[in-house]
Design brief:
- The protein is mostly beta strands.
- About 5% of the residues lie in helices and about 65% in strands.
- Strands 1, 2, 3, 4, 5, 6, 7, 8, 9, 10, 11 and 12 form a twelve-stranded antiparallel sheet that branches.
- A hairpin with a 2-residue loop joins strand 1 and strand 2.
- It is elongated and about 55 Å long.
Length: about 200
């Protein structure tokens, strides 16, 4: 995750010098409803009855996400700030028994957006998330933490008609559960959405 963040920062520094003007005027706001696909997986290691299971023992869960985001266009034409609220399905499936763990969150991404070309933005920020529900093989799981904190990275492209495609990944910094120190595992998520930006005058 640290290497990925360093690469993103370097890319932003190299590209913003040549960035074109954003599609919206400085000081304006947009509201963007969004809908799309989400993925989730787990990262780390867990130990149950002396048996160690690593993140290679799982497959991603594919679900859906829906929400909305507000974006503010600063006086610097390549820099905007955004905040949103997204319902996102995350989780994973264990390869050894094909049983699924489903964890759904209300995520609140707060992002800095770097427009490196007209309509095209690179994104980085902070994302608190709040568990909506959690289940394993169809049964409720109560020991999943109610709060998750992640670092989102992504990119988006806004077409001339306001339709926007957005691709993001978010690496969690907080553990999934409170079992013990032998279980250090985290839930990461990603999403691909389509949205439409309405400008507020």
């Amino acid at each position: 995750m640290k290497k990925l963040m360093m690469i993103a920062v370097m890319a932003v520094c190299c590209l913003t010098a040549n960035a074109q003007k954003a599609r919206h005027d400085a000081g304006s706001f947009t509201i963007q409803p969004m809908i799309g696909l989400s993925t989730g997986t787990w990262r780390g290691e867990r130990n149950i009855d002396g048996i160690s299971t690593t993140s290679t023992s799982n497959e991603a869960r594919v679900g859906f996400t829906i929400g909305a985001e507000a974006e503010y266009y600063t006086s610097t034409n390549w820099l905007t700030l955004s905040a949103g609220i997204m319902y996102q399905q995350q989780g994973w499936k264990f390869k050894e028994n094909s049983k699924s763990t489903n964890i759904d969150y209300i995520n609140i991404p707060v992002l800095v957006n770097f427009y490196v070309a007209k309509g095209f933005a690179l994104k980085v920020g902070l994302q608190p998330g709040f568990k909506v529900n959690a289940s394993y093989d169809g049964h409720e799981v109560k020991n999943v933490k109610s709060f998750n904190f992640a670092i989102p990275l992504g990119l988006s492209y806004e077409f001339n008609n306001g339709i926007t495609l957005d691709l993001r990944g978010a690496g969690s910094l907080t553990r999934v559960d409170d079992f013990d120190d032998d279980n250090k595992w985290y839930t990461d998520g990603g999403m691909l959405t389509i949205g439409y930006k309405f400008e507020l005058k």
